[in-house]
């Protein structure tokens, strides 16, 4: 069989695909974090827990109500996004005038509560979520076999990321958002309801995390710890990409997933740390991140 | 933006209360109180529980030196605590070092790690700083999971307590308690000295208004790095001591939930207060010990305490007392 650098092509492309899938999740999650941070100036430590909630809502919809994957893709982000709106109104909105470290601490506490509750109810062993019928099977490409459900994750996340980017960069709502990020007081003076904008932004960012969670449900198992594991990697992705940039979070997310996949092929021991190593290197050269603006 | 926000939250900061002569007298009383409590408490409470409290109290004091006085929220302090505990345990068990040398080796490791990580992390401010320290600590966690010397999931077990300077056997809990209490007191006195030295004053100035401190000619990043290393070193001292006390070094101590726990201890006790972290550590360790039967509920309760502290009780227990007495504590 054909080999590249002594690695069978099949294995190489297999890991690259896995990397691309991980990258899809990094991209959506860091995009949600970037949007929330941009406007609210809050590092949403609950993001991982909200991603996990998305997966669990999808699982509950299927197992308690018989509602399948495609509806879950719509309903779970709505439900978890609404939960986010309530959190913002009740708790987070009280912290805007304080040092943003308090926002990080509050959302950290919330993550502990949410994860603890799910762990109490469902244990830590993980629940299976069946692959929907439309996505079973796969494509036989010349160099590898591509399962449909995995290809779909990459396509879906690309579409969502690009759509979000377009909304923020090209629409009037996006213009309000960007303006409010720069100078909320001035935008408020122009008659835009900034508190409402903040609430909706938080809800949308949370819904993005939940959407990623639904995408993850058939690929990985549904597990109360799934968010806690991924969120710290996503923080590193955010530091590398530079938090000011929406595009940066998308591009870096996908790219780092691929790098992680490649590392798994050539030097598996380093695959869980490679992103942190890259973070160190980027910080040494560009402390503001690859796409970040220096303040 | 980070510095203006820090200044805005200063209203709730007990360390902002001006210090007078009577404050010093009060602190002397508190120190005497702590010494008496350290001597009397083992008569009422189980010494191993007390040693656990003291190790975590020293850890929280070290963390608070960085957060409360340097204004830097490290979210990865478990890395220094845990790594020091691994090196100490390995030194005592495999190299056969005596306990004092093993603890020193662990502490030195934490200092070195703190120097490298600190130099990287202080390149960014505010939340970025927190995220970078967290990510670096996660790197240490994965290293500890995979490296051979840490024993992976099992950790390093059955670490010998040995005898101090080859003379005093530490097998007896009461003898070991004496040593741990001395280490704790030494750490507390050192931190108290640092805070009240000219170095500490400059630190507070940088915390409150970094551009202004820089314009006055202080090299802010050098000060920040120095306090970072001091803090990681003392955190390492606490972790190494804990390894000798429990004869164990394990993944729990390097996991990010440990970093969260030390933040919680500081927050509950009162960040930016000298003595707050001790009370915070006592409350949290006692809570974990006595609520252990409720399993996963402990995390939930911790989360609720976090949320309540951030929303309603930002000055913490000791901060509240300080405000009532109108004196810094």
Description:
The complex is a heterodimer of chains A (295) and B (329). Chain A is mainly alpha-helical and 295 residues long. Helices cover 72% and strands 3% of the residues of chain A. In chain A, strand 1 and strand 2 form a beta hairpin. Chain A is globular. With 329 residues, chain B is mostly helical. Chain B is built from 14 helices and two strands, in the order H-H-H-H-H-H-E-E-H-H-H-H-H-H-H-H. Chain B has a two-stranded antiparallel ribbon with strand order 1-2. In chain B, helix 3 (47-70) packs across helix 12, helix 8 (198-208) crosses helix 10 (220-246) and helix 11 (256-269) crosses helix 12. Chain A binds chain B through residues 37, 41, 43, 91, 94-95, 97-102, 104-106, 108-117, 119-120, 232-233, 235-236, 238-239, 243, 269, 272-273, 276-277, 279-280, 283-284, 287-288, 295, and chain B through 1-2, 5-6, 8-9, 73, 75, 120, 123-124, 126-128, 130-132, 134-136, 138-139, 142-143, 146, 256, 260, 263, 267, 295-297, 299-300, 302-307, 309-311, 314.
């Amino acid at each position: 069989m054909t080999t590249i650098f002594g690695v069978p092509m099949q294995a190489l492309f297999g890991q690259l695909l896995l990397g691309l899938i991980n990258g899809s999740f990094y991209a959506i999650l860091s995009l949600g974090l970037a949007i929330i941070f941009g406007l609210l100036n809050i590092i949403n430590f609950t993001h991982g827990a909200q991603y996990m909630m998305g997966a669990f809502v999808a699982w509950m919809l299927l197992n308690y109500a018989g509602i399948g994957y495609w509806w879950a893709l719509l309903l779970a982000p709505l439900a978890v996004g609404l939960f986010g709106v309530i959190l913002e109104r009740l708790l987070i909105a009280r912290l805007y005038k304080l040092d943003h470290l308090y926002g990080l601490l509050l959302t950290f506490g919330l993550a502990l509560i949410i994860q603890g509750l799910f762990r109490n109810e469902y244990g830590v062993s993980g629940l299976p979520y069946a692959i929907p019928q439309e996505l079973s099977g796969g494509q036989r490409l010349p160099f590898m076999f591509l399962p449909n459900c995995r290809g779909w994750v990459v396509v879906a996340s690309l579409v969502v990321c690009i759509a979000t980017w377009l909304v923020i960069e090209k629409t009037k709502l996006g213009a309000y958002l960007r303006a409010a990020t720069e100078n909320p007081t001035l935008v408020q003076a122009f008659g835009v309801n900034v508190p409402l904008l903040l609430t909706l932004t938080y809800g949308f960012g949370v819904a993005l995390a939940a959407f990623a969670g639904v995408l993850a449900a058939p690929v990985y198992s549904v597990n109360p710890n799934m968010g806690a594991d991924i969120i710290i990697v996503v923080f590193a992705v955010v530091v590398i990409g530079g938090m000011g940039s929406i595009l940066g979070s998308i591009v870096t997310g996908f790219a780092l997933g691929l790098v992680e996949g490649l590392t798994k092929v050539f030097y598996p021991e380093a695959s869980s740390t490679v992103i942190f190593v890259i973070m160190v290197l980027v910080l040494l050269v560009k402390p503001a991140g690859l796409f970040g603006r220096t303040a | 933006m980070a510095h203006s926000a820090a200044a805005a939250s200063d209203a709730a900061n007990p360390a902002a209360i001006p210090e007078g002569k009577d404050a010093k007298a009060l602190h002397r009383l508190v120190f005497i109180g702590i010494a008496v409590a350290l001597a009397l408490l083992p008569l009422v409470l189980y010494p191993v529980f007390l040693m656990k409290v003291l190790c975590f109290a020293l850890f929280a004091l070290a963390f608070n030196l960085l957060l409360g006085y340097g204004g830097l929220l490290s979210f990865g302090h478990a890395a220094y605590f845990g790594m020091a505990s691994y090196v100490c345990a390995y030194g005592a068990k495999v190299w056969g070092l005596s306990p004092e040398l093993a603890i020193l080796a662990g502490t030195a490791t934490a200092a070195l790690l703190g120097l490298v990580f600190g130099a990287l992390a202080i390149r960014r401010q505010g939340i970025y700083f927190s995220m970078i320290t967290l990510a670096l600590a996660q790197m240490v966690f994965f290293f500890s999971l995979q490296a051979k010397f840490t024993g992976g999931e099992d950790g390093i077990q059955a670490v010998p307590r040995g005898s101090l300077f080859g003379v005093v056997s530490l097998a007896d809990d009461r003898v070991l308690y004496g040593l741990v209490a001395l280490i704790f007191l030494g750490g507390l006195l050192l931190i108290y000295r640092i805070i009240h030295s000219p170095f500490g004053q400059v630190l507070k100035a940088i915390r409150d208004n970094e551009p202004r401190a820089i314009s006055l000619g202080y090299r802010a990043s050098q000060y920040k790095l120095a306090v970072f290393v001091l803090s990681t070193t003392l955190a390492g001292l606490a972790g190494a001591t804990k390894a000798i006390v429990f004869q164990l070094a394990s993944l729990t101590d390097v996991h990010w939930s440990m970093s969260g726990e030390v933040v919680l201890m500081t927050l509950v006790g009162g960040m930016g207060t000298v003595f707050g972290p001790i009370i915070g550590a006592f409350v949290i360790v006692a809570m974990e010990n006595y609520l252990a039967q409720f399993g996963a509920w402990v995390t939930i309760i911790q989360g609720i305490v976090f949320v309540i502290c951030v929303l309603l009780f930002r000055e913490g227990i000791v901060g509240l007392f300080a405000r009532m007495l109108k004196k810094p504590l």
